[in-house]
Write a structure and sequence with these properties.
Number of strands: 17
Distance between the termini: 92 Å
Bound molecules: zinc ion
Shape: flat
Largest sheet: 6 strands, antiparallel
Length: 562
């Protein structure tokens, strides 16, 4: 959309999207409180009628935020950026693709486009869904310097909803946007800090306007053509609240009410722990030696016992002398004159299990699976027994399903940045890239995949399924060891009949050479070093293996024990 002067003045004066911006700011404030623990001190209100002011103070001061909770709950989101099977197609000629790759490797301050999306978009999709990604062009001198270094002079920024005055969404893109110009920017431009300045971007221009006595004036010295040809901004979230038009939601939206409960219950537990969490000592006391139990001496409060009239054993050398019990008295033994009153475990247990139940509900709502805290690793049940492959599968599927829309959003933002960067610097009539982050999320550990693989093997699953599973196992097992992974993948084709054990293979009456190669494979592998395994082809390695086993004999079958 291209705005004329009258429309610009109307937008500044009427602020038509004000409600959306205010909602967005409040929403972000709430999310930041949960995710980072910001503004906790002003958040807790006293529970009217139940709580003294002093108790509220205690609760506010010592309650912990939900920061750790959200860190635990959000961990699977990282899998979007480590998923296997992704690719970026630039759809460019070989020469220009090289430049595009180079630029996308370092889009801003050493971040690649992908890393930028992970580091800047992901957290703000969660804490500021109304905020936007906005592309900026470096200043003239800066652009010349960057161009010389082969770097991009177009770079992505995150604009917090708090610095946005208004915008008009069109899907996740924008018809126009108005930023509040900050004091620093005004100062740098030589404008008085008290002047009200806005920056408006539409499809054709990037304006600064001044507002004075209700009159809106465009500042020509701070107005540039918009080289992108459209507003280079994209809203942080594609999740929409169906109740309102263009009300953007965080991925965490559905669990916020539960998180609020969690915060409240946690804070009440803190109060309780302070008030009742300590064992208390009490003892039967004799009369004060000074005032003889009266509590007063010469009309004044007795200084020795502070008026209680009792003598307390405070030094380790203090001794309590008991009278011999008379016949009528109930006998109190010396070891019964004092003791600890233990705090109640009941409340502690209820409070802890309440919090755990809330966390479980949140995990199920968010991921469709229970909190990991209780399942203790992917392949163990709560009773510690190994889960079957199907059980593990049941837990993985819903999590992966929940990650798909996040991958889609991340890809869209990656493509958005990449396409504009290429269009402005490499190919003006660029048709656009295709970005895929992959959908194999590596949610399972190697143990769980091995179980699945073994299960499939014994059930005689087809070869290609076994190949896939073994590949998945290797990928999980060597997740942070690319060299190990490359070798393991190669060895799948060097080892004869990789999915069969030697004993099963024997039953299939194989060729003697193959059988020997299978039997002595591990022995041969141990004689090879990493670099030879990496550098040689599968066929070369096979030749080495068969040469190695040539002189080996098949061991005689041992006679069966009687
Ligand atoms: Zn006394």
């Amino acid at each position: 959309m291209i705005l004329d002067q009258t429309q610009i003045a109307a937008i500044i004066k009427d602020n038509p999207g004000n409600k959306r911006i205010v909602d967005g700011r409040n929403y972000s404030k709430k999310m930041r409180r949960h995710i980072y623990g910001e503004g906790m001190d002003t958040y807790f209100e006293s529970i009217t009628g139940f709580e003294r002011d002093s108790l509220k103070e205690l609760r506010v001061k010592y309650s912990k935020s939900n920061k750790d909770l959200f860190s635990r709950l959000g961990r699977p989101l990282d899998k979007v950026f480590t998923a296997r099977g992704g690719s970026v197609y630039y759809n460019l000629s070989e020469e220009t693709e090289k430049r595009a790759r180079l630029i996308s490797q370092d889009i801003k301050d050493g971040y690649s486009v992908r890393k930028w999306v992970e580091s800047f978009w992901k957290p703000h999709m969660l804490d500021d869904p109304f905020g936007i990604i906005f592309l900026e062009i470096a200043s003239r001198q800066e652009a010349i310097r960057l161009k010389k270094q082969g770097k991009s002079f177009v770079y992505p920024t995150y604009k917090q909803i708090t610095c946005i005055y208004d915008y008009l969404p069109k899907g996740n893109r924008l018809e126009w946007i108005v930023f509040e110009v900050g004091a620093d920017e005004k100062k740098a431009a030589g404008i008085d800090e008290k002047t009200t300045i806005y920056r408006i971007v539409d499809d054709a221009f990037d304006y600064w306007v001044e507002v004075k006595d209700d009159v809106v004036t465009v500042l020509p010295n701070h107005t540039y053509p918009n080289y992108f040809g459209e507003v280079p901004g994209m809203v942080n979230s594609d999740f929409l609240n169906p109740q309102y038009e263009y009300c953007f939601l965080s991925f965490y939206d559905e669990i916020i009410e539960l998180a609020e409960q969690f915060l409240l219950k946690g804070s009440i537990k803190v109060t309780h722990d302070f008030m009742h969490g300590f064992p208390k000592y009490s003892e039967f006391a004799g009369n004060c030696n000074v005032c003889k139990g009266i509590g007063r001496l010469d009309g004044e409060i007795c200084k020795s016992c502070n008026g209680s009239g009792k003598s307390a054993m405070v030094r380790v050398s203090d001794i309590k002398l008991l009278e011999w019990p008379s016949k009528e008295d109930a006998v109190i033994l010396p070891n019964q004159v004092g003791g600890y009153v233990e705090p109640s475990v009941t409340f502690h247990e209820i409070a802890t299990s309440d919090l755990q139940a809330l966390e479980d509900s949140m995990a199920v709502t968010l991921w469709g699976t229970q909190s990991r805290l209780r399942t203790q690793g992917m392949s163990m049940g709560s009773d510690g027994a190994a889960k079957t492959a199907t059980e593990v599968m049941d837990e993985i599927k819903p999590q992966a399903d929940r990650l798909v829309p996040v991958s889609e959003m991340a890809e869209l933002r990656h493509k958005f940045i990449l396409d504009f960067v290429i269009k402005l610097q490499i190919a003006q009539s660029y048709g656009g890239s295709s970005v895929n982050y992959g959908r194999r999320y590596m949610l399972e550990g190697p143990d769980a995949i091995w179980l699945k693989y073994s299960d499939a093997r014994t059930k005689g699953a087809p070869q290609n399924i076994l190949d896939t599973l073994l590949n998945e196992y290797n990928e999980a097992n060597y997740q942070s060891d690319p060299v190990g992974l490359a070798i393991a993948k190669k060895m799948m084709y060097v080892e004869p009949f990789v999915h069969y054990s030697a004993s099963v293979l024997k039953g299939l009456s194989p060729d003697e050479k193959d059988y020997k190669a299978k039997l002595y494979f591990s022995e041969w592998l141990a004689t090879q070093n990493e670099s030879s395994l990496l550098s040689q082809t599968v066929d070369q390695l096979k030749q080495l293996l068969y040469a190695f086993v040539e002189a080996k004999k098949i061991p005689e079958a041992e006679p069966l024990a009687a």
